Amino acid sequence: MTKLSKLKKLTRIDVLIVVFMCLLILPVLLPALYKARITSSRIKCGKNLVDIGRAMRIYADDYDGEFPRAGGSDSIWSGRIVQWMAKNRYIAYGLQEDGSKGAAAITSSLYLLLKYAGVSPKSFVCPGDKGTTEFKPSEDGVRDSELVYLWDFGPKAETHCSYSYHMPYGLYALTTSSDPGMAVAADRNPWIASPTAEGKYLSLLSSYNPNGRRKETNVGNAITHQEDGQNVLFMDTHVGFEKRSFCGINDDNIYTYWNGGDIRRGGLPIPGLSQPEDGLDSFLVHDPPGPKYPAPILMRHLQEEADN
User: Is the pLDDT of residue 302 over 50?
Assistant: First the structure.
């Protein structure tokens, strides 16, 4: 046997050994890589909320302590604004000449941070929120340089914003004088439909047990991070990955409104109807998909409430 043939034989054996070792390592390596990817996603998401929190303070300083609230003084919450690339705010929100009436969205309120506080569109996208991408106006026929002249994240704004925000439409919008423990923004509300997930049913809220084991409390957590918890921005500007959804003041559930029962559970949010009970009731919501609130979603929630 020549030296060359011996070398070839050894090379084949080496390859087989490498393949065999890879097969042994993969079951250990893949979970570690998956965990690292999940951790990286959570960290990036948390950093986004830090940027958003800083921008909210800058915005509030310029607007008499009020946090971002698109529309007029008495505008209602809608899943869409009238015109996201309008020439002025009156047309954008459908306001009357005196600035009253009209409708706005959660995304349009957060978009004010892009217009007036310099937040980048990519800061509104959590890597773990599948189906949500960075807003690029050029993809909707508008030049990227015109970002500051727009009024929302495009025709399907909910696909470009990963975060829920404390209900700004109603009696208890946030201001700089709000309690420091109030939750301001967080990952999407798991009880409201999103671009990639249907809102959880009332039956799951019934099985959600604040006193239960980890599996039972995880039901109330954001879907974005595999129900392990959620990144939450608080009024004092700190951001934390909270393993329970009842992380507001007095263990208030940030994703439900207080309905007079266990504050850690609360009531199933009905888009367009549910409101915080008082100034200490954190209630974070996002816009569900579709033009305004699809009737089937609203009727489903109402039917579930009636059945229970």
Answer: no
- At 256-284, the pLDDT tens digits run 999 999 999 998 888 778 899 999 999 99
Coil, helix or strand at residue 3: helix
- Is the CB of residue 91 less than 8 Å from the CB of residue 80? no
Radius of gyration of the chain (CA): 23
> At a CB cut-off of 8 Å and minimum separation 6, what does 172 contact?
275, 276, 278, 279, 281
The enclosing H or E element of 218 equals helix 214-218
What burial letters (b/e) apply to 94-126, b meaning 16+ CB within 10 Å? bbeeeeeebbbbbbbbbbbbbbebebebebbbb
pLDDT for position 86 = 94
> In Å, what is the CA distance from 10 to each residue of 7, 17, 18, 24?
5, 10, 12, 21
Domain that residue 301 falls in: 3-307
3-class state of residue 71 by DSSP: coil
127-171 pLDDT tens trace:
999 889 999 999 988 887 789 999 999 999 999 999 999 999 989
Which of 218, 254, 260 has its CA nearest to residue 235? 254
Residues composing the chain: 308
- Quote the number of domains for the chain: 1
Exposure class string for 174-196: b at 16+ Cβ within 10 A, else e: beeebeeebbbbbbbbbbbbbbe
Q: Which pairs from 53-58 meet CB under 8 Å and 24+ separation?
A: 53/184, 53/185, 53/233, 53/237, 53/239, 54/237, 55/113, 55/117, 55/118, 55/119, 56/113, 56/117, 56/184, 57/176, 57/237, 58/117
More confident residue, 257 or 1: 257
User: C-alpha dihedral over 102, 103, 107, 109, to 10 degrees?
Assistant: 40
